[in-house]
Specification:
This protein has 518 residues and is an alpha/beta fold. The protein folds into 2 domains: 2-152, 3-Layer(aba) Sandwich (Rossmann fold), CATH 3.40.50; 169-461, TIM Barrel (Alpha-Beta Barrel), CATH 3.20.20.70. It is 42% helix and 15% strand. The chain is built from 22 helices and 17 strands. The protein has a 7-stranded mixed β-sheet, sandwiched between helices. The protein has a 6-stranded parallel β-sheet with strand order 10-13-14-15-16-17. A two-stranded antiparallel ribbon has the order 2-9. Helix 14 links the parallel strand 16 and strand 17 (355-360). Helix 8 packs across helix 9 (243-256). It is globular, with a radius of gyration of 22 Å. The relative contact order is 0.11. Mean pLDDT is 91; it is low at 300-306 and 510-516. One of its GO terms (biological process) is methylation. Its cofactor is [4Fe-4S] cluster. It comes from Acetobacter malorum. Residues 181-395 form the Radical SAM core domain. Keywords: Iron, Iron-sulfur, Metal-binding, Methyltransferase, S-adenosyl-L-methionine, Transferase.
């Protein structure tokens, strides 16, 4: 069968700071190709809807699959599915990915028959089974993870081994368009999949059932040797949770003499626990590290159930600085913030050398705060669920909230972008331009055209064609069984030694709750 895999357009944040290759879609495409199918990929982050229609006409696919990882992309995906159904009524269309896995029935209802099914869970595990069922004319509801308007198949399954799946990187048509910071161009790679923690604002753990699986250091090094890009973004939700695994990858890289520059995300407590791993990685090319602090006070940390003390957060920043790493931090702005709170955060951001990004508390399906806050939503427009818009009631009038938010985000622009950034990165920028890489340099002056309180406020005024269903009453407590896409398999699904498992439990919640969820 001919299969076209589609990634939707860029979101607000990715229009400025980064544009990452669609690794998840490449993995799904690779799995489909391994199953014997003819596959093409189009990424609408770097191509246009016109390109999409031209590719449909020239390639003539039997199946079109869309990546539904982000809630804000849902309207665009549905529009494309509906338009494709009109022009090409015989094409089978389905959507997979992180976000749609939590709202499968809602998306199917909005598509009004344009979408044949949703594939929940790990798409690279089930796409071969789905395509085989289509070819053989079998009931789709025999395929794990399939949801249609008439029913739901067996529970989603995991890929048997992360060592056996390879992304179809060769199918991406504009690889020089992907970057993160000065890593331009940059490829993405997966060392581990899943997250063993359980933060209230995050759905990574509910998607993967608190599992944590790793790829072989040898397989990872093989993949790194094949990647042509000099920059590498490690997509793991929390990098180097398992010290031994992180060190083994580093040793394999050193043994082979692989020269790359790396960017990763981790937690402050993981960094402090596994200092030696991060030290070794800083010596083999780790340049950037992103730490999701989320809050700068103890009350905020408690709210997000991040059991990392402020002292530990600041200790982690000090240690990262000592390694010469460029550190980026995320702080979540609560809708309850007033002017004084915004001002205090601004002053803190100005006093530290790190890059500080400010996002907005956003309840996402699959998170605990979704179940507790969804009834309070001030909008049901999917497009506004991008962590840059306020979708819950704000203490300040909404225009003032956005003014304060952007004023606070401007600290990042003032300190780390425009001419100020160019002074520090002139050599890097010059070398990139000599090679024809313009992503990073263009980024430096994009902030004000994207982050604008008037534009953000105007987004609320747009007529929404697709609305989330009205949610049930707010609940005080959540049954975790209602959150999971892949059901929790307990300790056996986490590739962690006992000491690391105990560390995770101590840093995520109370022991009683751990016992109930392990």
């Amino acid at each position: 069968m001919k299969v076209l895999a589609v990634h939707p357009s860029a979101l607000m944040y990715t229009k400025v700071f980064l544009r990452l290759e669609p690794l998840g879609l490449e993995l799904v495409a690779g799995a489909a190709r391994d199953a014997g199918h003819d596959v093409q990929i189009i990424d609408l982050q770097v191509e246009t809807h016109k390109d999409y229609w031209e590719l449909l006409e020239s390639f003539k696919p039997d199946v079109v699959c869309f990546s539904g990882n982000y809630l804000a992309n849902v309207p665009e995906i549905i529009d494309l599915c509906r338009a494709t159904r009109v022009r090409y009524p015989d094409i089978f269309q389905f959507i997979g990915g992180h976000s749609v896995s939590f709202i499968a029935r809602d998306v199917l209802a909005l598509s009004e028959g344009a979408v044949n099914c949703i594939l929940k869970g790990e798409g690279d595990a089930s796409i071969g089974l789905l395509l085989r069922a289509l070819e053989d004319g079998k009931d789709l509801l025999t395929v794990p993870g399939v949801v249609t308007m008439t029913g739901e198949g067996p529970s989603p399954v995991f890929v048997e081994s992360l060592n056996d799946i390879r992304p179809a990187r060769d199918l991406l048509r504009h690889r020089n368009k992907y970057f993160i910071g000065t890593l331009d161009p940059a490829a993405s790679i997966e060392f581990a999949r899943g997250c063993p923690w359980d933060c209230t604002f995050c759905s990574a753990w509910t998607f993967y059932g608190r599992s944590y699986r790793t790829a072989s250091p040898t397989v990872i090094a093989d993949e790194l040797e094949e990647i042509k890009e000099p920059g590498i973004f490690i997509v793991d939700d929390v990098a180097f949770v398992h010290e031994e695994h992180g060190m083994a990858i580093a040793n394999e890289i050193k043994k082979r003499g692989i020269k790359k520059e790396y960017y990763l995300e981790t937690r402050a407590d993981v960094l402090l626990r596994n200092k030696e791993v991060f030290k070794v990685w800083s010596e083999i090319g780790l340049s950037y590290i992103f730490i999701g602090m989320e809050a700068v006070d103890e009350e905020g940390l408690k709210q997000f159930r991040k059991r990392v003390s402020l002292d530990k957060n600041f200790e982690a920043l000090d240690y990262a600085r000592s390694l010469g790493l460029i550190v980026a931090i995320n702080i979540i702005a609560d809708p309850d913030w007033d002017r004084g709170r915004f001002e205090a955060v601004r002053q803190w951001c100005l006093e530290i050398p790190e890059i500080v990004n400010i996002s907005v508390t956003t309840p996402y399906p699959g998170t605990e705060i979704w179940h507790k806050e969804a009834r309070r939503l001030t909008t049901r427009d999917y497009r506004l669920f991008d962590i840059q818009h306020a979708v819950l009631p704000t203490k300040l009038p909404l225009p003032e909230f956005y003014e304060e938010l952007v004023k606070t985000q401007q600290v990042l622009n003032t300190k780390h972008m425009g001419w100020e950034a160019l002074k520090d990165t002139a050599g890097i920028a010059g070398r990139l331009l000599m090679k024809g890489q313009t992503n990073f340099v263009k980024m430096l002056w994009k902030f004000n055209s994207v982050f604008n309180p008037k534009l953000q406020l105007a987004d609320h005024m747009r007529k929404a064609r697709y609305l989330m269903p009205i949610q049930p009453d707010v609940v005080d407590s959540v049954d975790r069984k209602d959150l999971y896409v892949h059901g929790p398999g307990g300790r056996k699904t986490r590739a962690l030694d006992d000491a690391t498992e105990q560390f995770v439990d101590k840093t995520r919640m109370t022991e009683d709750a751990c016992a109930a969820d392990s």
